[in-house]
Amino acid sequence: MNEELRSEIEHLYRIEKFMESMTDMEELLEVIISEARAATNAESCSLALYDEENDELYFYTAVGERGKGEVERKLKCIRMKMGTGIVGWVAVNMKPANVRDPYNDPRFYSQVDKHTGFVTRSILAVPMIRRGKLIGVVEAVNKRNRKGFSERDEKVLTVLAAQAALVIQNARLYEENLRRARLSALGQGIAGSAHCIKNILNGIDGGAYILELGIRREDMESISRGWNIMRRNIQFMRDFVMDMLAYVREDRKLAFEPADINEICTSVADLMREKARDKNVDILLNLQPDLGEMLMDPRGIYRCILNLVSNAIDACDKPEGLVKISTHLLDAGDRLEISVSDNGCGISEENLRRIFRVFFSTKGSKGTGLGLAVTQKIISEHGGDIRVESELGLGTRFIITLPVERKMDVREGG
Q: Cα torsion for 5, 8, 9, 14, to the nearest 10°?
């Protein structure tokens, strides 16, 4: 095997390895262009992409000799109409061009040299084509031996240009699929939100009708009933909006501070007792004593437990419903377990697989499908996890596990 063939194989092998390990398009293209420059023994090598919308070429990446980064930076600012310069000719005709004396070639666009301060002595440009469609042009400039580029250089650069075209096409397909997935998720989110808001507004309308009827008849019982319906639905709307904000905000930071988890659980139980009594449900607290204060976002954890207790009450369809809130440290003492269980209807195996999905609800029009998704997100932000155990007809248990961080730990850590 001669030295030139060995060198070509080595360049292709390196690129193949990089394509297996890299996922970033820009990094991959820089590697390919660097290898193209080395393989053709050129002073610089660049890649121009075709902008189909504006029918232009623009330099996407460029690699040159050490100390000439300013030239590459200026080159990347240039956009040219199709057909302009040797690169533009290659793009229009989708054929290679090997030019040994550019300044005597009518196709040469000398403005690029004037803009970059670079002096072009020889050019080899080949089109990047994928399935008959122009992707761009790869250009090697100034063969170091000053004899110009050879036919062998043209073949090597053509192979490397094909690899660059494959990388670009795959990246574009990925971006398009990602865009479609985002649009689909956005559509589902809007549909889910609209459905939930419509149900809430229906409840407010119903309460307003009863309230107005009571006012006309001077019936205090109807006035009270209508106002209570409206108040519940307004609170439902408030909770829904807060859950949406908690779920979609990626920049939201947890407000860690010392808090007593038993006090949080007791507060939730006190708040939910009226709702529980209306459904003939008892709330039982089984809290490990003397847990003390731990670092957490108390408002976030409060919201998680509130969501779970509210769901548990709704799930109790028996004459004597029971919801139990428990806390205890796990054996090693470095994790806290909080569980909320009920003796309600239970969750089917199929629904268990989807229980934490956004806008998935087993409550029909009574649920937003956000509560459990938000709960899972908040727990995950704490570095914890949440799981669920359920059996149809017997009940459900949600278990939250959080890492234990105490105030003293932070002080000792500086």
A: 160
